[in-house]
């Protein structure tokens, strides 16, 4: 980004050098510009640089804002996901029909949505996988033929559990990386 800014900043200088070399009349005074013509060109170049640097500053403020947003949101989101996996571990001996009333089923989607809304992470694949696994779990819970099957024996249950654990660990790693920077 730094080199792009330098290149963009040199565009008007390059244009002026080319115009001078090719004897282009870029001011109303022609090839013999007046003092006001020189100041007009200088003001235009300075205005261009001002817009360029203001845009770069806004970009950097956005990057810093996203970094600190993630730093403040991720610890709470990690706690929520850890609470979900803890609840999943506690109710693993329940039957599929009994899992319908568990609160953590709805909390999974909310927590995954919270992770998605935090900018700057690289967990999109994990989130997609967890959403698919949650859908498979809900389909299993709602399957009438599986009503009496215990969750402890269902592979989809533990696959989702492991994926949520993995997301929790990724959040921990992200927080540590941001703290080290």
Put simply, the count of helices is 6
Structural domain tally: 1
Average pLDDT? 87
Under the CATH scheme, which architecture would be assigned?
Up-down Bundle
Query: β content, as a range?
Result: under 5%
CATH top level class name: Mainly Alpha
- Low-pLDDT ranges: none
Secondary-structure element string: HHHHHH
CATH fold description = Four Helix Bundle (Hemerythrin (Met), subunit A)
Write down the oligomeric state.
Answer: single chain
- Give the strand tally: 0
The class by helix and strand makeup works out as: mainly alpha
Distance between the ends: 19 Å
Helix content: over 70%
Shape: rod-shaped
Radius of gyration: 29 Å
Main beta sheet:
none
